[in-house]
Amino acid sequence: MKEEWPQKIRNRSHAIILLFKDHRSFEDVANIFGVHLTTIHNWAGRWAVEGINGVFDLDGRGAKPAFTEAEELIVIECLETDPRSLRKLDAMVMERTGKTAGTSTYTKIIKKHGKSWKRQRKTPKGKPTEEQYRQGLEDLAELKKLAQDGEFELVYFDASGFSLQPCIPYAWQDIGRAGTLRIPASHSPRINILGFLNPTTSDLVTYQPTGSMTSAVIIEIMDDYCEIITKQTVAVLDNAPIHVSQAVRKCIPRWEEKGLTLYLIPPYSPELNLIEILWRKIKYEWIASYAYTSMTALTTELSRILNGYGSEYRIEFSNK
């Protein structure tokens, strides 16, 4: 019902239940739905005469559509050109159809055609070949199976950066300019976090190096991680230049002797590295808005979240 019928149909249905099943008064139901008492009497009258058909609009009621079905398709075509601005959309639709409309009309048409307003996501510049991607999926499936059988621990390694430039550009806010939530615009140093995530056990080991991210930093962190693992471990990581440099490759035999093996996912396939989900959760859901007020607040908030992962903060991976 929530997806198939408009809100007004659901309201009328709810009102009928309150009136005829719960025996609420007409005045109570009018107050609940914020409509005139006469409207409630009309709803009840149509229900008494027509039954379930009485909650639907009669043919011919309401304003005529601003656009025909064919013109709605033109609206969607124009939207694909620039999916961010309804003002530009109106100009393009006006040029092609000779019609103009308000934002509410365009919003209804856009939602009708299965679209929603949501944040755009960054994607890699390139993409792997089908063969590379398929091989990566098969390799990871085999690694996961072997890890579940106890052959070794499977962890996911990657880095992410945080600064005072917030990653969430909008939130639920009071209507009007006075109700706008404000976060100070501020340039700041970047806090780099590198982590090893075991999605099966929810274990998370993180490092926060200072300075630039280099192969030397990766080597130092891998050396340290080798000292704390207690069984054979496979670390999944991407093909970032600092992960595949000659300096790093020279260290691989040493790490393998200590029980750490590296597996590189196919290029341009960040979604195969499950720790990426953790970084998104922190940036877009878990980190509080006040953390962007100062570097001290941001550092404290990151420490709180990272230390609380596995207890206060968890991710349910559908396919570990």
Search tags:
320 residues, alpha/beta, Nucleotidyltransferase, domain 5, 3 domains, 5-stranded mixed beta sheet, 10% strand
Summarize the structure.
By secondary structure, the chain is of the alpha/beta class. It has 3 domains: 49 residues; 44 residues; 179 residues, Ribonuclease H-like superfamily/Ribonuclease H (Nucleotidyltransferase, domain 5), CATH 3.30.420.
Structure explained in plain terms:
- With 320 residues, this protein is of the alpha/beta class.
- The chain folds into 3 domains: 7-55; 69-112; 130-308, 2-Layer Sandwich (Nucleotidyltransferase, domain 5), CATH 3.30.420.
- Helices cover 44% and strands 10% of the residues.
- The chain contains 11 helices and 5 strands; from the N terminus they run αααααααβββαβαβαα.
- It has helices spanning 7-20, 26-33, 37-50, 69-81, 86-97, 103-112, 130-148, 215-228, 246-257, 275-286, 295-308; strands at residues 153-162, 191-198, 203-207, 233-237, 260-264.
- Strands 3-2-1-4-5 form a 5-stranded mixed sheet.
- Helix 2 (26-33) packs across helix 3 and helix 8 (215-228) runs parallel beside helix 9 (246-257).
- The protein starts with 6 loop residues before the first helix and ends in a 12-residue tail after the last helix.
